[in-house]
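Q: Predict the assembly, please.
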Amino acid sequence: MMNLTHWQLLVAVADLANITRAAERVGMTQSGASQAIAQMEAHLGMPLFRRERRHVAVTELGEHIIAQARDMLGAWEAIRAFADENQGLGHGRIRLASFPSAFSHVLPDLLGPFRRRHPGIELVMLEGSDVEVESWLEDGTAEVGVMLNPPPERSPIMLGRSEWVVLVPNAHPLARRSRQQGVSWAELADEPFIAATGGCRNNALSLSAQAGVFLNQIRVTVHDWASAAVLVKEGLGVAVLPESTVPVDLAGVRMLALQPGIFRSYGLVQAPAAVGAKPVQALFSMLRGTFNAATSTAPRA
DNA sequence: CCCCACATCTCGGAGACCTA
DNA sequence: TAGGTCTCCGAGATGTGGGG
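A: Predicted assembly structure:
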C-alpha cells in the first residue's frame, strides 16, 4: 500500500539524489525510506532509481512516474489550500514565544510540519526569558508560548521532561563516581562553577538557592546551556544543566545525577486572548495529534 | 461497538560496500 | 582507517477486517 508520504519520498529522492536526505525531508528514517522505495518498486514492478556509488539516479521509467507523482502532489496541495481557505486558515499569523533552549532544541522539529501544512500562516518567533514569555502571553504580545512546568488548567501540550545533571571534566575527582551515585548541591558549593541560565529563571543558581546552598566559586555566567558544557570540557569548572541540553557528542565530560534529583517539564500553552483563534486551534490540533499518538516518544529538549 | 488476529509500517542496529 | 550510504533483519507500533 502506498500513502502520500511514499509519493513525497519518491519526489524528494528524485530532487535530492540521496535517500538519507530525502527521508529527512519527508520525516522518515533512512532505513524506512530505503525499504519504502524498494516496496514501491516491487509494487510497481519496475526500478525507479539506480543506486550508484555516491548517489541514486532516476531511471527512464522512474522519470515518467515521478512526473506524474509531482502532478498528483500538486493537485493535493491545491485541494489542501482550498480546504484551508474554506476554514479561514489560508492566511494568518501566530506569534510564538519561547526561551532560547526550546527554540534551538524542540521547536524546529515541531513547527516544520505545521509550516508545510499551512504555508499561508506566518509563524513569528519571539525569544525571551521564561518570565518574559509568561508576560507576553498575558498581555497578548504572543498567541502561543513555551512555559516551564505549565499548570494543568492551561491545557498544555507537554513537549518534554528533562533531568538536571552535573557535568564535570573527566579529570575531576567526582568523575570517578557512577552516574547514579551522583553529586549533591553541598558538594558543589566550593567547586569552580560555570553558571548557565538558558534564559530561564529556573537555573542552577535559583535551584541551588532553593536547596539552601550558596555557590561560592562562580567563574563565569553564560546564557547558552551548550556553551556551559563546552566550558566544562575545557576544564574551567563544573556546571548543572538540563540533560537534554547537553550536546550528545560531548567527549571529555562526565555526566552525573544531581542528588536529590530535579526535573523540569515544559509545554506549549495558548495565550488567554488567543483561545479560539483558528490558526492557533489548527496548531494545537496538529500538535495534540502528534503528542497523543506518541506521548512516550515526545522529543527531548 | 468491542475484541482479536493478521497485515503492514516504521524504527534502530548491524553489516556490506565504497571513497577520501 | 574513518566516514558516508544503502540494505537487511527483528521488534514493536499501528491499521484493518471479521466475528461476536
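Confidence is low (pLDDT under 50) at residues 292-301 of chain A. The longest strand of chain A covers residues 157-169.
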